[in-house]
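fyi for ur records
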Amino acid sequence: PPGGTGGAGGSSSSSSSAKRLPPPEFLRGADAVVWARDYSARDEERCDCDKLQRVLESLPGAKRMVVGHTIQEQGINGACGGRVLRVDVGLSAGCGNGEVQVLEITQDGHHIVRLSENKEPQVLSFAQKQEAAQLQQQQQQQHQTEQQQQQQLLQPATG
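which gave:
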């Protein structure tokens, strides 16, 4: 209809004198923030951690992102070294009937806890995982450097 949005925003009535503005660009399309699932894959390797890092760097002071909209059957969890926290536990009866969980971030963001009814709080230790991944990467780089140095020593001198 003329003046209507013809979609999720509804349509304008001919008796309405105010025109509805289209939603902002960042809310439209398959890649809109309300639809994006770049960081929600159960298999963490499929999460776009490089993109997440660029997004966080573009937001002054942002260290991590909390997302929902994709049910996490394993409960509240994180990916990308804890830089994204996924909190959709499928709470409603129509979407999994998941258990109630609460994400608690304390101590200046260094202590992240998943709270569940009738269970002990579970500390989500992303910092430890991130440190271990960084150490592993450093060890791999050191190993590659050593291999390259050995290959250079074994190559005959040209001249």
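Residues 37 and 70 are 7 Å apart (CA to CA). thats all i got for now
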